[in-house]
Specification:
Layout: H1 2-6, H2 30-37, E1 42-46, E2 51-55, H3 74-93, H4 103-118, H5 130-147, H6 162-169, H7 174-192, H8 195-203, H9 211-225, H10 237-246, H11 248-280, E3 295-296, E4 303-304, H12 307-317
Antiparallel strand pairs: 1-2, 3-4
């Protein structure tokens, strides 16, 4: 990696806490290879100017998470919203202001740099209050509003709805995104998840808005989205769990296909009401004064609103009684 970056004129910073490299070891002998690689705590890198010792860490946290002892996700939601705001500000001042950049490209920037920090580990969030859920939804849409260049009201002074923004960026609402992430998370839990997490799901089963009950309703949604579902309509959650364990790769492909079709259908369903609203919306404009019917005196050019006033004028000033 050091030689590769050096070929492009880039130098790695070997100071403590700076450059990090994540390596994934896969294959038939991956366990033996990991054991050999992590047999020592450091690795030597020849920089040409000397040997640098790099520390090996078996645990890597991408963005981290903060969960209270009482399973309160309020502080974590506030922290995620703050990180999203900090990440979105450079985009608003830079690439999102360029009118020659397509809206779809802006939406991808928001997904990768801003909303990825907002929705990190959102599949494990449960028991959120209405205020936290509303705050997450508004933060989720704020980046897409910037991507669609609709931070405020449109030039026509009409209100820009959330549905209109999602139609422009071709994205689904936050609730659907979290549901699909929970379904992907379910596959990871059933195949490689720790036993402690499975016990936690069993212990919180009695709570109505617990993570276990949220996951229970997700396979039913997947059943309705798939046209050629591998299981019957009355399949239980236990049957879906067994299918996920036996056919993990096929399940992930089915979930991806269902998510793409669902997102397109949701966007089209939101497009129709927005189109109807645009037909009935009124745009304020300068209305010229209504020209009322007037009666003109051809001799002097004076105009009158009523016939009685015109007759009085003709008799008094022109000596003609009409």
């Amino acid at each position: 990696t050091y030689r590769r970056f050096g070929g492009y004129g880039m130098t790695l910073n070997f100071k403590a806490g700076k450059t990090g490299l994540m390596a994934c070891i896969n294959g038939s002998s991956k366990h033996d290879m990991r054991r050999r690689f992590y047999s020592t705590s450091t690795i030597e890198v020849d920089t040409g100017a000397g040997i640098v010792h790099v520390h090996k860490d078996r645990h890597y946290r991408h963005l981290g998470g903060m969960v209270e002892a009482d399973s309160n996700f309020g502080p974590e939601v506030a922290r995620r919203r703050l990180m999203r705001k900090v990440a979105l500000r450079p985009l608003q001042q830079g690439i999102l202001r360029k009118h020659y950049v397509d809206v779809s490209v802006n939406a991808r920037y928001v997904d990768s740099l801003s909303n990825s920090k907002l929705l990190h580990q959102c599949e494990s969030w449960s028991q959120l209050s209405k205020g936290h859920a509303h705050g997450l939804s508004s933060s989720y849409l704020r980046g897409y509003r910037a991507a669609a260049r609709r931070l405020h009201h449109a030039e026509t002074q009409q209100h820009v709805t959330d549905e209109w923004v999602l139609v422009q960026v071709q994205r689904a609402p936050l609730a659907d995104v979290v549901r699909v992430r929970r379904l992907r998370y379910l596959a990871a839990v059933l195949t490689t998840g720790p036993q402690q997490l499975r016990r936690l799901l069993d212990e919180t089963w009695t709570q109505a808005d617990s993570l276990a009950n949220l996951i229970t309703g997700d396979p039913q949604w997947l059943q309705t989205e798939l046209r050629d579902s591998p299981l019957s309509e009355d399949a239980t959650v236990q049957a879906w769990c067994q299918y996920i364990r036996d056919h993990t790769t096929t399940y992930r492909k089915l979930l991806q296909r269902a998510w793409i079709s669902h997102r397109h259908r949701v966007v089209e369903n939101m497009r129709i009401p927005e189109w109807e609203r645009s037909l009935t919306a009124t745009t304020p404009y300068h209305r010229p004064p209504v020209q009322q019917d007037v009666i003109l005196c051809y001799d002097c050019g004076q105009t009158f609103a009523t016939t009685k006033a015109w007759r009085h004028h003709r008799t008094r000033h022109h000596g003609q009684k009409p």
